Amino acid sequence: MTDRHTLAGGCHCGAVRFDIDVPTAVEVLDCNCSMCAKTGYLHLIVEKPDFRLLTDAAALSDYRFNSGTARHLFCSRCGIKSFYVPRSHPDAYSVNLRALDDISTLAVTVTPYDGRNWEAARAALGD
After folding, report:
1. Is the pTM of this model over 0.90?
2. CATH number for the domain that contains residue 33
3. What does the pLDDT look like over 74-114, one tens digit per residue?
4. Domain count, the chain
5. Which residues of 44-65 are buried (b: 16+ CB within 10 A; e: fewer)?
6. In which domain, by residue range, is 23 found?
7. Does 68 have pLDDT greater than 70?
8. In 3-state terms, what secondary structure has residue 110?
9. Are strands 107-113 and 25-31 parallel, antiparallel or unpaired?
10. Phi, psi at residue 67, to the nearest 5°?
11. CA–CA distance from 9 to each of 32, 96, 113, 125, 127 (Å)?
């Protein structure tokens, strides 16, 4: 069995807080799409049962574009997107590794993801 950790994270102002359960060794995707490249988002995919929103969901603003599948969730006060529901994994959350309070217990592998060519990159991910 893989060691697992509970980590805390959230937005800049603290209005959005969450906990996640993840293994010790994680892979994050460094996407080059128009949104991720501008924000420096590093995608840590977390299954829905392993994610717990600790604050009121009313603190979040929802933004959708293109296919409308992804639910980009931003703190309505400070504007930080610390997690969202990605198009690539609609039954999970993508947590921004950089929005976690402390990642010192993790072994992190960063994998480039060609979000500018989303369809081909998604097919390469598999399930």
Report:
1. no
2. 2.170.150.70
3. 999 999 999 989 888 889 999 999 999 999 999 999 999 88
4. 1
5. bbbeeebbebeeeeebbeeeee
6. 4-125
7. no
8. strand
9. parallel
10. -75, -20
11. 23, 9, 23, 26, 26
